[in-house]
Design a protein that fits this description.
single chain, about 325 residues, alpha/beta, Rossmann fold, five-stranded parallel β-sheet, 11 helices
Length: about 325
């Protein structure tokens, strides 16, 4: 655990512990008592406070021209990047957002992992040359036509999204490889700020250990992939071990290089995602290559009471997954 991760976890633990929410049983009690909306509001207040602290730190350094946001799969990077961009613009600083996912190579050209499966976590799944040329053009004051990756067709498209960086404006880059020096290495170090966005704090299970954030990210990804990419739960689950291996190799080694860390976890997310994931995994077998993961997901869902409908703020990170 990095020092920034430890600090983020400690701060969240103190906040939620002070409110008496430490375990699934605590969460269930709040839900039964009709406090679901209050939980949502408290979570947003906490994250907004942390975001404001981050924005003030960014604005205090006049040399910064680019902001790089990385994190593992389903960490909420994209939504966090949007929140940060809006917060900066509310302070009068225009931003231009670039998603590294939009620079994926065509799906047919995606590299394979050691098991012969498409390795979407590999840096080679990104057209680094194209991205680098675009960043060089922007740094010189030129205009670029940004691509948009179509996840249904597995190909890049161009939809007229043209940008140019003006004086005092930020370029905000987000993606799983954003902290990899092969992506950002050509930029002047004092002109860039690096942020690692990832779920950090989770509820404690019966053994007193926190639910691993990667388990929560798996649930997020299943729900999102079903809604946005047309994947069945068994497809996403079958890819998950490959995703985790790729993260360990390509993403987490750069976490300690980040200037800042942002905790994208939600104390209530298991309870709100339960209604969407259970119909997808209820009839899946617990035997075979993904059986243990299916059993794990069911055990996690059994820990919490399903949350009733609540009003989620328009820009909330959790909406990236629940819609």
């Amino acid at each position: 655990m990095t020092e920034k991760e430890r600090i983020a976890k400690t701060e969240a633990e103190e906040y939620w512990g002070g409110l008496g929410i430490d375990s699934p049983e605590d969460l269930n009690r709040w839900i039964r008592q009709g406090e679901s909306q209050r939980l949502v509001d408290l979570q947003e207040d906490y994250q907004e406070k942390k975001l404001e602290e981050m924005v003030l730190q960014i604005l205090s350094d006049e040399k910064i021209r680019t902001i790089w946001i990385a994190g593992p799969s389903s960490s909420g990077k994209t939504s966090f990047a949007g929140k940060l961009a809006r917060a900066l613009e509310q302070k009068g600083r225009k931003t231009h957002s670039i998603g590294l996912d939009d620079y994926f190579v065509d799906r047919d050209d995606c590299p394979l992992d050691e098991e012969g499966k498409k390795d979407f976590e590999s840096l080679n799944a990104v057209d680094v040359a194209l991205f680098s040329s675009h960043m060089e053009t922007l740094a010189k004051g030129g205009q670029v036509d940004l691509p948009t990756y179509n996840f249904l067709t597995g190909k890049r498209e161009y939809r007229g999204n043209r940008i140019r960086q003006g004086k005092g404006e930020y370029i905000l880059v987000e993606g799983i490889h954003a902290l990899n020096p092969e992506i950002s290495g050509n930029m002047a170090q004092d002109e860039k700020l690096e942020i690692f966005a990832c779920p950090v704090y989770t509820l404690k299970e019966k053994d007193g250990e926190n639910i691993p954030p990667r388990d929560m990210r798996m649930i997020r990804r299943i729900v999102r992939d079903s809604r946005l990419r047309g994947y069945k739960a068994e497809q996403t689950i079958a890819m998950w071990e490959s995703v985790v291996r790729g993260e360990r190799k390509h993403i987490f080694p750069y976490r300690q290089e980040a200037d800042l860390e942002y905790d994208t976890s939600f104390i209530y997310e298991l309870a709100i995602l339960k209604s969407q994931i259970m119909p997808q995994i209820r009839d899946l077998p617990e035997e075979g290559p993904v059986g243990s993961l299916v059993a794990r997901l069911r055990d996690l869902c059994a820990l919490v009471t399903e949350m009733p409908p609540v009003k989620l703020p328009e820009g909330s990170i959790i909406r990236e997954f629940v819609g």
